Amino acid sequence: MESKGSEAARILNEIETLKATRSDLDNRISALEAQLRHLNPEENSVVSCPSISTGFGHGLSPDMIYRYSRHLLLPSFGVQGQSNLLKSSILVVGAGGLGSPALLYLAACGVGQLGVVDHDVVELNNMHRQVIHTEAYIGQPKVKSAAASCRSINSTIQIVEHQEALRTSNALEILSQYDIIVDATDNAPSRYMISDCCVVLGKPLVSGAALGFEGQLTVYNHNRGPCYRCLFPTPPPTTACQRCADSGVLGVVPGIVGCLQALEAIKIASAVGEPLSGRMLLFDALSARIRIVKIRGRSLQCEVCGENSAFTRQQFKDFDYEKFTQSPLSEASLELNLLPEDYRIHSRELKERIGKGESHVLVDVRPDHHFKIVSLPNALNIPLSSLESRSAEISSALKEEEKRKDSGFESSASLYVICRRGNDSQRAVQLLHKMGFTSARDIIGGLEAWARDVDPNLPTY
Amino acid sequence: MQLTLEFGGGLELLCDSVKIHDVNVIPNLEADKLTMKDLLVWVRTNLIKERPEMFMKDDSVRPGVLVLVNDCDWELSGQLDTPLEEKDVVVFISTLHGG
């Protein structure tokens, strides 16, 4: 056992060393490339500026003609469509589930300048849907990973990395550098912020969203069409804003929506076809149905793009989108604090008590499909939504435990409540106290804290 | 009046996770017609099984819900006053933010 353990440690060590070496090499390559660009500005302009004259009257070089030949063969796209694309600039906000395929196709198709904004790093639980990233980039910035993938597909276009969170303080400056904006973010405040910024700057916005088995897509602020606020003047309650990290998402669903976003951006950039403006595409993966519906036009009363609205750059900069939507701009998890301290217990302390043989009942209030992923031994699964109707099960479990452990010393068994992150367990304890279970205590931080502080082998999700 | 009602974007969770409902709604005899306003009341009473505040606010749908009558935004047909006819398809869809 011990030799196996030391062997594993040696391998892990070597992996770490190799990764550090690779990162160092990457940095040196980037620095040298930058140096080279500095030394040969003309050569660089050949690479990044596609409009060189080659004597065919359309500015496409022989390499471009070959690379984009299947586009050029489309009668309704042709040289004109491709030239328009090569001259265009598109910004993708978010290099996640939607942004991954959108960026890959936009890089491949020859958008002249392609920008990507993200502040996040690549994680293992991103890989099932964020197909632009590879395992080698886990732990590294998504922007860096996405840009590397785009460059490996098409080294002839300009890829711009914005490795930062989009905020009102930098959005105007970043978005103003591009012709078309693709919203591939994952939260409500970002969606309002990006839409408002596009209105202020007069940019078309290709907006996509996906959750569970469903997707939605439309183009805002284009051809006199509506903006996001025309459609949703009042933000939804936070309880209606589900996140992929809580509700789940089938990986291919944002993939499909992201591809459609690339398509809409390409149509606008090349001036080919009919953009999805004033219409919305609704995609239901489970029933294999796509519905395209007509939506309202620009609202005269819209507070941002309406006739009498004067939403200025300064107003945009001063607007508090987190307050407006009551939710954070980044996908941070909510941490509630609903209970007095003596209604709560740390996972380490509970572990000690269990070790000492304290009689107790552990209720796990997560939904049944969460419980099936991973659970603690002997936990009783009663989802929060059915806690009231199933309270008798808790009473009898407590009685059973008291009978089993009856040594004459302890008069009653303790009741502990756990969930995934420690929010629902607090709600459950509030409810249990109201129902008369006055010994109920919540395990602070839930299973995530248990995995961190007590049992690192417990899987997290 | 035979109508097809569809719920999406998570709203189906409020009605036993069933997305498509073929229903028969009897219009008020005196009014002799059915509007979206009447239908919302009927849906709240007959289909919504939990958290009605996730579907309605005051006498309309809550912010973030799109209503489509025959694949057309109800803003274009008179919102709550939109008249309904036999075999109409009404879709209630919650806007998604994920990605």
UniProtKB/TrEMBL annotation, chain A:
Pathway in which this enzyme or protein is active: Cofactor biosynthesis; molybdopterin biosynthesis; tRNA modification; 5-methoxycarbonylmethyl-2-thiouridine-tRNA biosynthesis
Active-site annotation: C244 (glycyl thioester intermediate), C419 (cysteine persulfide intermediate)
Entry binding sites for Zn(2+): C227, C230, C302, C305
Enzyme class: transferase
Keywords assigned by UniProt, alphabetized: ATP-binding, Coiled coil, Cytoplasm, Metal-binding, Molybdenum cofactor biosynthesis, Multifunctional enzyme, Nucleotide-binding, Transferase, tRNA processing, Zinc
GO molecular function: ATP binding; metal ion binding; molybdopterin-synthase adenylyltransferase activity; molybdopterin-synthase sulfurtransferase activity; thiosulfate-cyanide sulfurtransferase activity; URM1 activating enzyme activity
Subcellular location: Cytoplasm, Cytosol
CDD domains membership: ThiF_MoeB_HesA_family
Reaction(s) catalysed by this chain's protein: [molybdopterin-synthase sulfur-carrier protein]-C-terminal Gly-Gly + ATP + H(+) = [molybdopterin-synthase sulfur-carrier protein]-C-terminal Gly-Gly-AMP + diphosphate; [molybdopterin-synthase sulfur-carrier protein]-C-terminal Gly-Gly-AMP + S-sulfanyl-L-cysteinyl-[cysteine desulfurase] + AH2 = [molybdopterin-synthase sulfur-carrier protein]-C-terminal-Gly-aminoethanethioate + L-cysteinyl-[cysteine desulfurase] + A + AMP + 2 H(+)
Swiss-Prot/TrEMBL GO biological process terms: Mo-molybdopterin cofactor biosynthetic process; tRNA wobble position uridine thiolation
GO cellular component: cytosol
Family assignment from sequence similarity: In the N-terminal section; belongs to the HesA/MoeB/ThiF family. UBA4 subfamily.
NCBIfam families the UniProt entry points to: PRK05690.1
Protein's UniProt name: Adenylyltransferase and sulfurtransferase MOCS3
Native source organism of the sequence: Salix brachista
Gene name linked to the record: MOCS3
Automatic annotation (TrEMBL), chain B:
Function recorded in the entry: Acts as a sulfur carrier required for 2-thiolation of mcm(5)S(2)U at tRNA wobble positions of cytosolic tRNA(Lys), tRNA(Glu) and tRNA(Gln). Serves as sulfur donor in tRNA 2-thiolation reaction by being thiocarboxylated (-COSH) at its C-terminus by MOCS3. The sulfur is then transferred to tRNA to form 2-thiolation of mcm(5)S(2)U. Also acts as a ubiquitin-like protein (UBL) that is covalently conjugated via an isopeptide bond to lysine residues of target proteins.
Organism from which the protein derives: Salix brachista
Identification of the protein by name: Ubiquitin-related modifier 1 homolog
Alphabetical UniProt keywords: Cytoplasm, Isopeptide bond, tRNA processing, Ubl conjugation pathway
Subcellular location: Cytoplasm
Record cross-link Glycyl lysine isopeptide (Gly-Lys) (interchain with K-? in acceptor proteins), residues: G99
Post-translational modification: C-terminal thiocarboxylation occurs in 2 steps, it is first acyl-adenylated (-COAMP) via the hesA/moeB/thiF part of the MOCS3/UBA4 homolog, then thiocarboxylated (-COSH) via the rhodanese domain of the MOCS3/UBA4 homolog.
HAMAP family: Urm1
Family per record: Belongs to the URM1 family.
Main location: cytoplasm
SUPFAM superfamilies associated with the record: MoaD/ThiS
Domain of life (superkingdom): Eukaryota
GO biological process per UniProt: protein urmylation; tRNA thio-modification; tRNA wobble uridine modification
Residue list for modification 1-thioglycine: G99
GO cellular component: cytosol
UniProt entry tagged with the keyword Electron transport: no
Keyword Phosphoprotein: no
InterPro entries in the record: Beta-grasp_dom_sf, Mopterin_synth/thiamin_S_b, Urm1
Entries under Pfam families matching the protein: Urm1
CDD domains listed in its UniProt record: Ubl_Urm1 (cd01764)
